[in-house]
Amino acid sequence: MNIQYIRNCYGCGLCAIACPKRIINIELNNEGFYEPNITDITDCLDCGLCCEVCAYTHKELSLQCRTPKSYAAWSNDSIIRSECSSGGIGFELGRTLIGKGYHVCGVRYNTELARAEHYIATTIDELRPSIGSKYIQSYTINGFSSINRKQKYLVTGTPCQIDSFRRYIRKFHMEDNFLLMDFFCHGVPSMLMWRKYITDVEKKIGKLTYVSWRNKRTGWHDSWAMAIESEFNKKMPIGGNNDVLKYKREHFFYSRLSQGDNFYRLFLSDACLGKACYTDCKYKDLQSSADIRIGDLWGKTYSQNEEGVSAVLTFTSKGDELLKWCNCTLVEHPLEIVTEGQMKTCPQRGYIYNKAMAVLMDENATINDVASAIKLPLKLNNLMNILKHPSKLYSYIVNRMKKI
Ligand SMILES: Cc1cc2nc3c(=O)[nH]c(=O)nc-3n(C[C@H](O)[C@H](O)[C@H](O)COP(=O)(O)OP(=O)(O)OC[C@H]3O[C@@H](n4cnc5c(N)ncnc54)[C@H](O)[C@@H]3O)c2cc1C
């Protein structure tokens, strides 16, 4: 038994890490998602380890969900809070654990390879590139394969990556050395889309040297914004003893969803997520195999907050204890408040997906071509949704009236 017939899975890479013969490669498939490939099947020992650690092939999660504790949280360090995607809890958990001798396996963006990837941070300085969400699927192999079984780690990732990861550390009796953190996950978009997007940006500003997906310049609620630095943008030393922001980010190229950014239009409209995100995501809402889950606390309670508030769920006492050691403010709230606004079910894959994928797979098409191809179907879809839900119809009319 092996993963040779597994296609369109989570692409978490744990099968490759577990394989004793190292014959599994993780590569992008033709739709732009990571997938395992066995290089030489004649070398397979038929040990079944690749399937054993694979969350995609198991119905049950590796951690059975008990009712979690739920919090609003934010870093007490205002600079960290301003740089992170929501309240900066991801960074604060890492910083606290590094202080306790742990290493952190998080995600950074590699501008040379134009991909997000897991890596190991052993110092606070090394942890900095993990700040902020990279809204693309991460390549896990370098990070996961550098894990030393005798060391303690915080491992962060999408819920599906973390579910497989728990299976892996349980299989090799290492669970005590690990603390696992995932996030409420919308899904991951195709790398074909990301590549077309950056090709378009690079035409305008030259080779990218830094990318931040979330930028709070005009507040947290309007933080669906790319802030991009390129070889032509100057870096301005900020001076003083500010050790977090090494440079003033004054010369960034900014592109916001509210002004029609193509990456966010395609990502947030669910036009080109991984097939597994539509049909096999078992991790919405409270379903998690992590010790801690983080996300944006988008609900009414913090609707006036513009600095960023993290939603935090702790599923284990280990996770809850760690949270209390961090340099952050914690407010316990009922689950309905903390999870308000989160997706409760998987998105639908239909006509818009087929249309977007067909254009994405055309090598000559640009990101504008993809966005144009789905513009009308998306409008129709939104209209249908509004008509199906009277409450949405009411707020739609109110919003239109305000604009007149
Ligand atoms: C693909 C994706 C989809 C998401 N969907 C939702 C959602 O639907 N609802 C919601 O509330 N939040 C979602 N988030 C999480 C959200 O964007 C913030 O990461 C979260 O609010 C934590 O913010 P923070 O300020 O504490 O994060 P930070 O302190 O900035 O930490 C971010 C953490 O996320 C990890 N990370 C970053 N990019 C990736 C990646 N591509 N793959 C794996 N790990 C990564 C980093 O290693 C770091 O630990 C999503 C994140 C990603 C990457």
TrEMBL record:
Family matches, as InterPro entries: 4Fe4S_Fe-S-bd (IPR017896), 4Fe4S_Fe_S_CS (IPR017900), FrhB_FdhB_C (IPR007525), Polyferredoxin-like_ET (IPR052977)
Pfam families: Fer4_7, FrhB_FdhB_C
Keyword check for Iron-sulfur: yes
Transmembrane intervals: none
Keyword check for Endoplasmic reticulum: no
4Fe-4S ferredoxin-type domain mapped to chain residues: 1-29, 34-64
Gene3D superfamilies hit by this protein: 3.30.70.20
Superkingdom, natural source: Bacteria
Keywords: Iron, Iron-sulfur, Metal-binding
Protein name in the entry: Coenzyme F420 hydrogenase/dehydrogenase, beta subunit C-terminal domain
